[in-house]
Amino acid sequence: MADDLGALRDIHGLDALPWWPIALGWWILLGIGLLLLTAGIGLAWWIGWLRRDWRRDARRHLRKLSAQVNQLSPKEVASQLSGLMRRIAMARHGRVACASITGNAWLEWLGSQDPAGFSWPKHGRVLIELPYAPPRDQVGRNDTDPDQLKVLLEAAFSWLEVKDLRSFVADRPSV
Q1: For helices 74-93 and 103-113, angle between their N-to-C axes, nearest 10 degrees
Q2: Cβ neighbours of residue 54 closer than 8 Å, sequence gap 6 or more
Q3: Tell me: the pLDDT tens digits for 138-175?
Q4: 85 vs 101: CA distance, rounded Å
Q5: CA 13 from centre of chain
Q6: CA 117 → CA 33, 104, 150, distances in Å?
Q7: For residue 98, what are the contacts with CB-CB under 8 A and spacing of at least 6?
Q8: Strands (DSSP E) along the chain, which ranges?
Q9: Alpha-carbon gap, residue 74 to 83, rounded angstroms
Q10: How many CB atoms lie within 10 A of CB 58?
Q11: pTM of the model
Q12: 24-76: pLDDT as tens digits
């Protein structure tokens, strides 16, 4: 038995566990976390891109119309601007809020929703009258000034911009 006791060794403490390199399970957890973080950032960017998409398209159409204001007839410019303003309004406030509004009520509604405070009822009559006017050769004259249309285009640019993003998100209809 004395030989057996000589073969025994004293108990030593455990070696310190290194924190690096980490175990395989932690690598997997870290990879899943990075994947979720990347997906979340990508999803937030994509949603933001979609929200800005209609405004980018509207800006492009307004720039194109501004460049063609002297080449197109005032009736064509007014018709295109009127339709574009209607689409912008529906994108910003929803179809239910503004699609059925016509005539002077439309201009008053535009003025009430304009962040810059432009007087649409005073200066925007061209938008509700000129698209429905008879052709130029039937009237014999055209009293619409291209500068008046340029003022309306500038007002449309400022109307397109939303100063308070929270109100834009709150006004946006749920899909």
Answers
A1: 60
A2: 88, 91
A3: 443 456 678 889 999 999 998 887 554 434 444 444 43
A4: 12
A5: 64
A6: 48, 17, 17
A7: 86, 89, 90, 106, 109
A8: none
A9: 14
A10: 20
A11: 0.62
A12: 999 999 999 999 999 999 999 988 887 777 888 899 999 999 999 989 988 89
